[in-house]
Design goal:
By secondary structure, the protein is mostly helical. It is built from 19 helices and no strands. It has one domain: Amino acid/polyamine transporter I (Up-down Bundle), CATH 1.20.1740.10. The longest helix has 33 residues. Its main location: membrane.
Length: 477
């Protein structure tokens, strides 16, 4: 596939004229096929393959409803993002919109928070990927983590097209696994093959204590882990500055959100819980592994291990990609070191990606040396920092819609249906989830970390603004 290129900038100055529509020196090397799979894969991760077992044990079959409700809210968020992207498709995405519609400080906070989200996520995922490798190979975890990090780092520096190809195939593995599981479960329910044929029945969805076996309250408490499973779905917005035809490709990708959630979450869980009673699940158990075991498929554990390995590497790959772009956007707005503006000849942010990859390696080492509570607190912060991006997207869309309706700004070609009311509803839903996090003692630590990070950013911004007034000025490129 030929990469549509724009004029590039290698010295950290302003983007060339050829990148006027959001490229900012990047190459528009991501095609329709890659963007579609990035969008699909962004919503499928270890939260489904491994984390859903805990949700099933807590809420029973009603977890399906929790995913459906959260999925509607995610679609509202993505349509709000889509409206902003069609107004101005830029690689900085949420940070750029925050800077324009809320203020320079909001852009500063959003950029650095989203960067930290992906660094922490990259650390945890590359650590997990190394652990998954021990299923097949007797090799030190640190060695696997080092190899994975170096390979993904190198791929991200070569070209954005290679990043897109990796994400395409990572996502293809996850999609194939889920579709395969659904088809097998349908076969068990209709044709009656496998060891589970005698007990499999859709009545499992309501006969073991009802659809809400532990009450509606338990279902509500699963909303936090359900929303966490959708973190990274907004990554498609970061690709805007490097999409070949963003105004055509991105709306298509965003409009696939409902069927993605319907098939990969609601469909998969409905099939699994029809084959295996919900009472068979517990926290730490993959619903996919359990379903394979019930059907007598001995290779199931190995298949799921390969899929979760792929999901972890996909997340690391996404982290490498997004962190470099966020750091460069901050630097271009005088809110980060100027060195982060440097691009490779292939149009990838060299210094920002290298800096982030180095931190991921240090984080992996720290995790192995001191796997204590301090590291757990940092990891838990990733959840609340990811939701911050959603809040910023919704606020920016509300303010953009108000300005465009008044004629101050041009109207987007991809307006969010029902906005701004849908955006207000999504904000209320997110705040409800945050309240639920405060009630749940296991998730509460995320809220403890947020004020500390906010204080660090506030002090940093004051110091930065005093040294460089440009940090507090918005420059629309």
């Amino acid at each position: 596939m030929t990469s549509a290129q724009v004029d590039q900038q290698h010295d950290g100055g302003e983007a060339a004229d050829g990148a006027a529509e959001g490229g900012e020196g990047y190459q528009r090397g991501l095609g329709t096929r890659q963007i579609q799979m990035i969008a699909i894969g962004g919503a499928i991760g270890t939260g489904l393959f491994l984390g859903a077992g805990k949700g099933i044990a807590k809420a029973g079959p009603s977890l399906i409803l929790a995913y459906a409700i959260a999925g509607v809210v995610i679609f509202m968020i993505m349509r709000a993002l889509g409206e902003l992207l069609m107004y101005r498709p830029v690689s900085g995405s949420f940070s750029e919109y925050a800077r324009e519609f809320i203020g320079p400080f909001a852009g500063f906070v959003t950029g650095w928070t989203y960067w930290l989200f992906w660094v922490v996520t990259g650390i945890t995922e590359v650590t997990a990927a190394a652990a998954y490798m021990t299923y097949w190979f007797d090799m030190p975890q640190w060695l696997s983590a080092l190899i994975f990090t170096i390979v993904l780092y190198g791929a991200n520096l070569i070209s954005v097209k290679l990043f897109g190809e990796l994400e395409f195939w990572f996502s293809m593995v996850k999609v194939t696994a889920i579709v395969g599981m659904i088809l097998i479960c349908v076969g068990v329910l209709t044709i009656g093959f496998s060891d589970a044929a005698g007990t499999a029945s859709v009545t499992h969805l309501w006969k073991d204590g009802g659809f809400f076996p532990n009450g509606v309250g338990s279902t509500l408490m699963t909303l936090q882990m359900v929303m966490f499973a959708f973190l990274a779905v907004e990554l498609v917005g970061v690709t805007a500055g490097e999409s070949k035809d963003p105004k055509k490709v991105l709306p298509r990708a965003i409009n696939t959100v409902p069927w993605r959630i319907a098939v990969f979450y609601i469909g998969a869980l409905t099939m699994i819980l029809s084959v295996v009673p919900w009472t068979s699940f517990h926290g730490g158990m993959s619903p996919f592994v359990k379903a394979f075991q019930e059907m007598g498929l001995a290779a199931g554990a190995g298949i799921v291990n390969f899929v979760v390995l792929t999901a972890a590497l996909s997340s690391c790959n996404s982290g490498m990609y997004s962190t470099g772009r966020m750091l460069r956007d901050l630097a271009l707005n005088s809110q980060g070191p100027k060195a982060f503006t440097r691009l490779t000849p292939s149009g990838t942010p060299l210094v920002g990606t290298t800096f982030s990859a180095a931190l991921m390696l240090v984080g992996v080492w720290i995790n192995y040396q001191w796997p204590g509570k301090a590291f757990d607190y940092v990891v838990s912060f990733a959840t609340i920092s990811g939701m911050w991006a959603w809040i910023v997207i919704l606020i920016c869309q509300i303010r953009y819609r108000a300005k465009s309706d008044r004629g101050v700004l041009p109207k987007s070609e991809f307006r969010a249906p029902g906005a701004p009311f849908t955006s207000y509803f999504a904000l209320l839903f997110i705040f409800m989830v945050i309240v639920l996090m405060g009630i749940d003692k296991d998730a509460r630590v995320s809220l403890y970390c947020a004020p500390l990070w906010g204080l660090v950013l506030a002090v940093s911004y004051v110091v930065l603004r005093s040294r460089n007034p440009q940090a507090a000025a918005f420059r629309k490129r």
